# Entry
Amino acid sequence: MRGKVWKYGDHIDTDVIIPARYLNNPDPKALASHCMVDIDEGFAGSVQPGDIMVGGWNFGCGSSREHAPVAIQASGISCVIAASFARIFYRNSINIGFPILECPEASEAIKAGDIVNIDTKTGVITDETTGQTFQAKPFPPFIEQIIDAGGLLSYLKEKK
Amino acid sequence: MGMTMTQKILAAHAGLPEVHAGDLIEAKLDIVLGNDVTTPVAIGVFEKAGFTEVFDKDRIVIALDHYTPCKDIKSAELCVTAREFAKKHDITHLYDVGTVGIEHALLPEQGLVGPGDCIIGADSHTCTYGALGAFSTGVGSTDMAAGMASGLNWFKVPSAIKVELTGKLQPYVSGKDVILHLIGMIGVDGALYQSLEFTGEGVAELSMDDRFTISNMAIEAGGKNGIFPVDDKTKEYIRGRFKREPAFYEADEDAEYERVVKIDLSELKPTVSLPHLPSNTKTVDEVAGMPIQQVVIGSCTNGRMSDMRTAAAILKGRKVADGVRCIVIPATQQIYLDCMEEGLLKIFVEAGCAVSAPTCGPCLGGHMGVMADGERAVATTNRNFIGRMGHTGSEVVLASPAVAAASAVAGCIAAPGV
# Structure
């Protein structure tokens, strides 16, 4: 996957990813149209399919709303890179088959607007704008199986 | 090497003699919980995957508490989806308007959760039941769907932070001040992926309501769960409520902890968290006088009976200050009834408070107290993120019921008992 970077800071919480006032309509497209609105009004209208979101520490903290990774995914973002993820957001992303990568070095160095190339299998992140490369932590095999199956429910179905 | 209390519960539910931090395990679930925001999404996932049966109709709890009584057509439709699913699968524990309470006050009160349980809930504050000596954690809707389908879910066994409590709380200092203080010490990701294991002689000094409040906000430190040992107070609390057989687990003497945090309860002062992170803590005397327009006393963190009593004791015979709106929300129908029988509702109404039916409403900016640009609330809720209670230009200051009630009377942030 390859795309332009949308860069955000530390402790990006699920209330700013998708404010609770929009949770009354769980349709992914509707959620995407409000994604990040409280801290970045321009995001939902300008994000392009394949773009990449980069956050700092504790990305996705707060509420358990799965609407948060669903909103980001439906907005067209292909992958989120962060220094660290809050645990429910991390689970939710894996469970819906949405790729996320933990990499503090990439989170620090990559800038808004950079063009970034990601190999989710190897975890290699390349910032084509600066020429820097980074190695994200690989997923444990069990979690890779869930992602490969396309999410937790597909994994459960396959196992049955 | 020994196991922590959390690790022992997970091992037992995974059918393993022992587990270690970092192990990925599959564990049996005692209760799977969802609310009106997360359950409809879980139902969609469950049905899309082609599941037609739930694993156990008695072990799924659906509490329609967030936007109820429904605030608009879309939220009414979410409730319809949840009700129809509950009817189709003959779900025993559906709580709707008239019986519903805020889920994390309701489930312990109704005896649906107890010591030794392994519980997931599609609501981040599901960690509340750690107060009962259960492993309990918040998950998303897909996890809830998987839990409803299989009665199982995957977990990464957490490492632990040991929180050693000593001493005894001073008057007007409560569980809320303990947890805000702890989050201020370790940060909003201080316990990321970890369990918070509360121990020490100070535990015995804490009421069950204080323990619920403390476990409830483990997530605000990034924690997977926050767990208390089972003692006489726990056993007294579950007596007559909890119908299943409880299981009592204790941490091994040689359990491994990544760090130990010590808190002397007697040194704590009334504490608040300023916008926009729960870790942004100050003692109330450092910020006294800060103007406010709204006070919210309620939520899964502080809407229990002792919270109502604390607030009423301060509001009794006094008036909410001009220019301040004070909203009181008893967390369950039982608490509402108890407030009525003890005369607390009269105290609240005479003081000029608005008393609401149980709902999560204002805590997440849903309804029943949404704020405009430039407004500030003191709230006994759990999050003060940007836009949490309404406009992105509004602010939430987190506090205990005592501080919230004292602030309502003063018209600004104020210390109780002054």
Q: What stands out?
A: The first helix of chain B runs from residue 5 to 14. Chain B has a mean pLDDT of 98.
